[in-house]
Fold:
Amino acid sequence: MESCKNILVITPTPSHPQNSGNRKRVHSLFKYFQSHSFNIHFVLYNAYQNDAICNKSNYEEMRQEWDYFDLVMPSPDYHKVLTTFRNRLCKRSLYQQMASKGLTINFGIDDWCSDSLINFIKWKTRNYAFSAVFIEYVFLSKVAEYIPRNTLKIIDTHDVFANRHNTLVRNGMEASFFSTSKTSEIKGLNRSDLVLAIQEEEKRYFESHLASKVIKVSHIEQEKFVDKEYQTLHSIGIISSLNSINVISIQKFIDLISRSQSLNDLKIYIAGSVCQKISVSLPNVILLNHVDSLANFYALADLYINPMVTGTGIKIKTLEAFSYGVPFLSTQSGSVGISSSFDFHNFLGLEELVEHLEHIYVKNILLKSYQDASKQCFYDYKTKLDSQLELLLSYVEGC
Structure:
C-alpha cells in the first residue's frame, strides 16, 4: 500500500458549509494539504448525534471536495443516558452556581468516542496506508491507540478543554460543548505524536504539560482585500455563528448601542446563524441571517466589529475581517491568538469599544487608518502562518 500521499482526517466537524470557525479551520487546513498533492480521506463522525451535521446537500459537497469521504454514526447505545442527564443538568441554574465555584461535571476523555468509530478506523487503516492521521479535537483521541505505530498521529486541539465549563460560567456563559479534567486532557493529547495548538498561549500551556511534541498552527486565511475607499462611518457589520458566547456578546453590544444617544442613526448589519437568538427592537439594526457571499457582506458596511466578551482558542472571525482588509474594532477577547498591537483591536470591554465607536461616528473620523491597520495585521499574521505550515508539512512529508 502506497502511503506517502495519503492523509486520514477524523473529525466531528463537517467541512461544509463553512459557516463557523471550526468548520473553516478544518476545511482550510486540509485544502492546504490537498494543494500539496495529498489525498485526503475525510471521516466525519457524528459525535453530537445531530441530524444537521450532515444533510443531503453538504454530504454531496463533502463527497465532491475530498478524495475519500465517509460518514460514521455513533454506536446505538453511545453515552445516551450520560449525555441526556448531563445536558439537562447543565441548563439548570443550580449547575451554573456549582460551576461558578469550580464544581463542574466533566466528561471522561473518551465519552464521545464510540466503538463504531474505533471499528471503522481499524478497518480503514487495515485497507489503506497513511503518512499521517489528523484527529480533530482531543475527545476523539482514543482512536490514536488503533493507528499503526509507523503512522504519524496528530491531534488538532482547537481549544483547551480542561475545566472549560468553569471559564464559561464565570463569564456568564452557558456551560456548553465539551469539558474534561486537566488530567484527562493530558492523557488524551499524549496519545499523539504531534499536537497542534491554534495560538501561542495555548502552545505554551500544552508544552508545559505534555510529553508529545507541540507546534503552533494558526487558522489559514487567504488575502481577499475589499476594493473600496473608506471615508466616514455610517454603518457597521457583525457576523457570527450560533453559540452561547456569541449570542451573549452580541446581545450585550446591542444593548449598549441602544443606550447610546449618539448612535441612534448608525446602521448595524448582523449576519450568520447568531441572528436566530438575537433580540432587537432598534430600527437601525438589520438581521441578515445567512449570507451566501462573504465578499458581498464585507463590502456592505463601513466598519466591522468583533464584540466577544470571553473565549479561548483563536478568533477566526477577526482573522476573516483582516483577510478582507476592512476597518475593524475588537475587544481583547476578540483578538486572542492574533497579536495585534493596535489599541482599537484590544479594548478591555465592550463599554470602551462603544465609546470609541461614538468618537469615530460623532467626530466623522476617516476610516482609512483602520483599514490600513487590518491589512498590516493580516500581512504580519500571514508571514508567521506560512512558516508554521512549512514546519507542519515537513513533519508529514518526513514520515
